[in-house]
Structures are given as structure tokens and as C-alpha cells.
Amino acid sequence: MPKSNLLAVTSITPDHFDINQLSHQRFKVYTAKQLDQIPQLQQLSAEQRFEMQVVASVLPFRVNQYVIDELIDWQQVPTDPMFQLTFPQRGMLKPEHYQRVADAMRNELGAADLKALISEVRAELNPHPAGQLEHNIPKLDGEVVEGLQHKYRETVLFFPSSGQVCHSYCTFCFRWAQFVGDKDLKIAARESNQLQDYLRAHPEVTDVLVTGGDPMVMKTRNLRAYLEPLLSDEFAHVRTIRIGTKALTFWPQRFVSDDDAEDLLALFAEIQAAGKHLALMAHYNHWKELEPEVAREAIRRVRQTGAQIRAQGPLLAHINDDASVWARLWQTQVELGIIPYYMFVERDTGARHYFEVPLVKAWEIYRDAMQQVSGIARTARGPSMSSHPGKVEVQGVTEINGEKVIALRMIQGRNPDWVQRPFFAKYDDQATWLNHLQPAFGEERFFFDE
Ligand code: SF4
């Protein structure tokens, strides 16, 4: 899209925003069991609806009325990006997996056998990429601290037990295993004081990232119980509190018209007033998520508290593998006061085969999108892989001494000494993840391979 068109995107218009228009909007959600109750799905064939049931029996499905009514363009289904983002599609299971589950459902396999089959299929979908269950779990006094992950020295991830769902589920979610009701696959804090105990023992931690699921599904009083103690002097080393959320897209009413919305905004303001930096790590995949007036009102209200909103999300086939979509997304974010932060690479889990984009193509899309926006919108890093050794950014394709190579950079490393190290891989236009790449220049291994 030419820049002149991008600039035509409307800005926030609080003057004509009427909160009373929202008062009738109550949160209503559909899960796999209620798929047939969604009136708009009746426009699809019986076969398509069966395919959705099959996929939704393996991968999590949850969508709310706001997404159905305000974000999906039903004239464009099934290719509509918001439909692809939230509704199961046949291709999201590999053909052999699809066939096994579809046959079982058609033949009305007994409940126990069907459950066992589904568990088997899930186990083949790499439910915990980048060694999440084995490598990042911290200990305190020799005991595993549940609900926390500590991979990078300065940042702790906290998974509050009551924040382990989302207002809707994304079909590509890399944390999908959290949502399928299997206790063995779930990471969640059992006690609210675990976080505090751990932080007391780790003065090197400056950043706490509250994540899920989506912590914004919690009532404000629960979120407050976790966050308010961190404002006291004993946690002076915690400088930044980040909250990972997609509520600005999936349920912006959380910040506008929910019963405890005002209290939530007051909590944000308190955190800022205590001298901490509060950042909402907002998950966005498409500029369409920023169009509804209520979504813009939510952004305006959050920003008024002094909190910052940083935007991140993966590059995905079927949803946003198009430079003009990213250019418009970043440009709109800047106009609404959001900082574009990351373009991620789809992780090696779940329905990855359906969404993945080769690294070289991802970089081409990133570069093309960057070229369409002004410098102020060029703050997004990317495309970046959250891999086992660390966060690796694809910096581009180049030629060195006659060898075509992919240039990469370790943005964040398991070993702090690796941070910001550049390195090179042999050119490979099919590779979709770090482990597909070979070192360039005849090297045997990358510096992080031990
Ligand atoms: S909002 Fe985030 S955690 Fe929730 S389903 Fe989407 S990607 Fe997963």
C-alpha cells in the first residue's frame, strides 16, 4: 500500500464514542461443543462443519460473540483472516492425523478410545516447543517453583493459575497445549506468593512478564493480588511489569465497559505512579483488529494510565503473509500510540505446517513492509524465532566471499554472553526454523551448539 493511503487510516475519535452503546455487550463464548450454535456457520456445508468438529477435537477452540460479529467478515469466509485466526480448518491437522480422527468420529468410536486417540495425536504435535517443560523451570530451595519460567537472566515469566484461558483462542497458538485440559501439559502457579518468594531470592530479575493464556481474563482483584505486592520497596529491583495479552483484540470491553474496567485502569495507573514501567505486550496479527471503535477506545484508556502498549505477533500463512498487511498494521499502531515491537516466526508446534512461512520469505515480507512505512514505524524486530538457545532474528540474505548466506542475530540468549552475536547460515529458501539451518563457511556448528 502506498504511504498516502496508509495515512488515511482514521485516528482515535473519543468525542463521538458512546460508552452506552456497549452496555448491552456481555461476554458470550462458544467452545467446540457449541460450534453448531453459531448461526453464521450455517452458511457452510455440512462437510465443512464436520471438518471443524474434527480439528476442534484435537486443537483448542473458543470464540466469543464480539469476534464473530465485529471482527470476521462473513462474506469473505473461509479466507477471511479473522476467521482463519479463530476457526478450525481441515488443513490445520496433517492428512494422516485428520483421517484417523475423522474415521473415529464417523464410526462413533467409544469415548475412552477416542480420547486416547486424540491424546496420541496431540503428543505428536510437539506440545512444548523449545524445551519449555524441561529447561526453563526454576527452583527455590531445591523445590520446583510451579507457574514460573526463568530462561533469560533479567526476565521471569509468571503464569497465574486463573489466567490460563483467553477470551478467544488463536488457531496457531504455540501455547495450545495449555488449553486442552490435560493437567500434565499445563503450566500454572499454585500459590500467589510463589512469585514473590522467587523474586526476593533473585535480585538480578528486573522484568516480570505476566502471561498465560491471557492474564486479562482475570478479575482485577485477582490481578491486583499478584501485582500490588511488587510495588513495595523489597521489590525495588523489579523495574518493569509486562502483561502479555490479546484482550485489546478479542475483548476490548475489558478496558472499557466490564464491571471492573475502571479498577483495572486504576491499577495500571498505580503501577506507573510507583515508578515502575508497565507495558502491555499486545498481540496483534492484522490491522482489522484495530478497526472497531471499542478497540480504539480501549487503547486510548490504557494509554491514559501511562502504561505503554507494545505490539507483537507471528507472521502466518493464511492470515498475514503479505507485506501490505504488516505495513498497514504497523502504521495504524503508530497512529494509535502503540509501539510495533516484534514480528515472530510461527513456532514448531501444533498446526505449524499450516501457518509456517520459510525464513527467507518471512524476511522478504518484513523488508517489503518496512520499506512502506516511515522510520517511526520501523521499531519492530523480526522475523524472530523463540528457539531453545535464545531469540534469533533473521537479519537478511547476503553474499560473503561468493557464498550466499542468511545473516542472523541472537537477540536474547540462554547464555547472556551470546546476546547480540551475529552469525551466518547457508542460504536455504525452504527452512522454516533454526534447526533447519546449517552453518555457513564450512563451519561444523553454530556457536551455541554444544
Ligand atoms: S491470545 Fe495468545 S495465548 Fe491466547 S490463544 Fe492467542 S496466541 Fe494463544
From TrEMBL:
GO terms for molecular function: 4 iron, 4 sulfur cluster binding; catalytic activity; metal ion binding. InterPro entries: Aldolase_TIM, Lys_aminomutase/Glu_NH3_mut, rSAM, rSAM_sf. Its cofactor is pyridoxal 5'-phosphate; [4Fe-4S] cluster. Transmembrane segments: none annotated. It comes from the Bacteria. Keywords: 4Fe-4S, Iron, Iron-sulfur, Metal-binding, Pyridoxal phosphate, S-adenosyl-L-methionine. The keyword Iron applies. Belongs to the radical SAM superfamily. KamA family. This is KamA family protein.
